[in-house]
C-alpha cells in the first residue's frame, strides 16, 4: 500500500549546525597523533553516521492507522486515535523537526514530555489538513 510521505522542512541554521558538528569531529580526527588516528576515526564513525542520517532520513508518513515519523535512527508511530491536538508551533524543543516552523502533536493519556512530538513537514498546511481528517479524537 502506498503512503503519503512528506519530506522535512530544513532551516538553514540546522544545516549549519550539522555541518559544524561534522567539521569539528573531522578536525578532531586529524589533531591526534598519527598512531591514535585510526582509533579516533573508528570512534567518530557512529557520530558522523548519526548526523548524516538526521539530515537525509527525516520524513513523515501518513499511514493507514498511524503517523509514522522518522528522524535519522529515531522512529515514532502515533496512532491517529491517540492524537488529541494538532497545532502550529515555533519553538526549539528537541524533536523530530529540522525547522523552527513546526507542528505540535499532543497525545491523549501521556504527559508533556512523552506525549508531545514536533515535526516540520515541507507542505505544513496540506499535512495538517490530511492529518486532522484522520484523527477522530481531537479536542
Shape: elongated
What's the overall average pLDDT, rounded?
92
CATH class: Mainly Beta
Number of strands: 7
Using only C-alpha atoms, the radius of gyration works out to 18 Å
User: Which range best describes the helical content: under 10%, 10-25%, 25-40%, 40-55%, 55-70% or over 70%?
Assistant: 40-55%
Number of helices: 4
- Quaternary state of the chains: single chain
Q: Main β-sheet, in a few words?
A: 4 strands, antiparallel
Order the strands across the largest sheet as they lie in space: 1-2-3-4
Name of the CATH superfamily: Pleckstrin-homology domain (PH domain)/Phosphotyrosine-binding domain (PTB)
Keywords: Membrane, Transmembrane, Transmembrane helix
InterPro entries: PH_YyaB-like
Amino acid at each position: 500500500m502506498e503512503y503519503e510521505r512528506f519530506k522535512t522542512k530544513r532551516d538553514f541554521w540546522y544545516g549549519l549546525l550539522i555541518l559544524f558538528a561534522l567539521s569539528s569531529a573531522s578536525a578532531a580526527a586529524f589533531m591526534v597523533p598519527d598512531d591514535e588516528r585510526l582509533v579516533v576515526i573508528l570512534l567518530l564513525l557512529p557520530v558522523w553516521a548519526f548526523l548524516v542520517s538526521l539530515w537525509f532520513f527525516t520524513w513523515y508518513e501518513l499511514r493507514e492507522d498511524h503517523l509514522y515519523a522518522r528522524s535519522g535512527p529515531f522512529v515514532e508511530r502515533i496512532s491517529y486515535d491517540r492524537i488529541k491536538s494538532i497545532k502550529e508551533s515555533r519553538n526549539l524543543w528537541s524533536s523530530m523537526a529540522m525547522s523552527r516552523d513546526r507542528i505540535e502533536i499532543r497525545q491523549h493519556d501521556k504527559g508533556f514530555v512523552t506525549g508531545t512530538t514536533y515535526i516540520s513537514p515541507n507542505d505544513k498546511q496540506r499535512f495538517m489538513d490530511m492529518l486532522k481528517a484522520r484523527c477522530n479524537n481531537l479536542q
